[in-house]
């Protein structure tokens, strides 16, 4: 359909009234399905009143019974209407300041599609968990990667869930879920904060390597959310050099699913020696050590878990 420019005071009043039926924005997610999936599109006239561009775009969606979702791009004033709610498999995340805002209509979300609350799910056996309609109580970064169709790498903030509780997760590489970022830059880790501290930023371009973070309290629930006999845990370091620096992978282990992640006693001496050797090797290679020696215990300080 060719783009249309919408204007006029009468239309503005109509759309303002229709918008009261509510379009729900997915928290902290900017983006949109492909333009080719839209069944209607407009460029909204900037001189038109009616309570803002996204509000008028919502009104246009409300006027059409086939409309289940919409996106509005503030910088171009482009309004796109969609007949289906997006899922991870067809949603293109945007991290631009003026990137598209995405909204869904209440009660239109099918399995694995985005939602704001459980009443949005068309199937009453599903609940809105991790902002998707599902019957899975735990949504990890690995699950998000699978829902995206296995595309890698998966980096930055995504909505997830632990035993039915929606929370933000920071994802890395091929479906790893960040458990702890021990680089504190002035923060003192203690018994009061090492299991739970801070949240990942909504924008994965953020200098996250400088942010202290922990969801260690959820570590074993994440570990137990998969059915395979083994899981992986990795220590990932950050180095700085004359051209900026970057991540490097340190210790990477495959362990029995029953292996505890939270230790109540010091780790096996052989494991400590292995990590010390890794630190020395990293130093020889001209990069920073994976961690300071007093932190070189994978319990209770693992970085990522899959």
Short structural summary:
The chain is α+β, with helices and mostly antiparallel strands.
Question: Please, could you describe this protein's structure?
Answer:
Keywords: Signal. Residues 1-22 form the signal peptide. The protein has 306 residues and is α+β, with helices and mostly antiparallel strands. The protein is 16% helix and 27% strand. It has helices spanning 9-18, 53-62, 141-147, 219-223, 269-284; strands at residues 4-6, 24-32, 40-44, 69-73, 78-82, 92-93, 101-104, 127-129, 132-134, 156-162, 165-172, 176-178, 180-181, 213-214, 230-239, 246-256, 304-305. The longest helix has 16 residues, at 269-284. The protein is built from five helices and 17 strands. Strands 1-3-5-4-7-2-6 form a seven-stranded mixed beta sheet, with helices on one face. It has a six-stranded antiparallel beta sheet with strand order 10-11-12-17-15-16. Strands 8-9 form a two-stranded antiparallel ribbon. Helix 1 (9-18) packs across helix 2 (53-62). It folds into two domains: 4-129, Hepatocyte Growth Factor (3-Layer(bba) Sandwich); 148-305, no CATH class. It is globular. A hairpin with a 4-residue loop joins strand 4 (69-73) and strand 5 (78-82).
């Amino acid at each position: 359909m060719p783009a249309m420019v919408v204007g006029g005071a009468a239309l503005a009043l109509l759309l303002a009234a229709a918008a009261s039926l509510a379009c729900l924005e997915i928290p902290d997610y900017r983006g949109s399905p492909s333009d080719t999936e839209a069944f209607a599109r407009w460029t909204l006239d900037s001189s038109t009143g009616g309570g803002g561009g996204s509000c008028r775009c919502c009104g246009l969606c409300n006027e059409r019974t086939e409309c289940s979702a919409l996106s509005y791009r503030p910088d171009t004033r482009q309004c796109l209407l969609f007949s289906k709610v997006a899922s991870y498999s067809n949603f293109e995340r945007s991290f631009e300041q003026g990137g598209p805002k995405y909204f869904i209509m209440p009660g239109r979300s099918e399995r694995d599609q985005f939602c704001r609350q459980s009443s949005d799910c068309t199937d009453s056996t599903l609940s809105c968990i991790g902002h998707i309609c599902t019957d899975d109580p735990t949504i990890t970064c690995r699950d998000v990667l699978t829902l995206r169709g296995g595309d890698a790498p998966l980096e930055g903030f995504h909505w997830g869930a632990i035993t039915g509780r929606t929370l933000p997760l920071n994802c890395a590489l091929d479906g790893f879920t960040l458990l702890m970022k021990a680089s504190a830059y002035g923060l003192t880790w203690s018994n009061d904060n090492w299991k739970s501290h801070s949240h990942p930023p909504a924008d994965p371009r953020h200098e996250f390597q400088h942010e202290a973070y922990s969801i260690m309290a959820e570590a074993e629930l994440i570990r137990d959310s998969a059915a395979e006999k083994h899981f992986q845990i990795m220590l990932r370091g950050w180095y700085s050099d004359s051209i900026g620096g970057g991540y490097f992978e340190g210790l990477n282990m495959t362990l029995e699913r029953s292996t505890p992640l939270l230790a109540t006693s010091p780790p096996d001496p052989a494991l400590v020696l292995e990590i010390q050797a890794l630190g020395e090797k990293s130093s020889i290679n001209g990069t920073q050590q994976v961690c300071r020696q007093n932190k070189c215990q994978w319990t209770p300080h693992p970085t990522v878990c899959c």
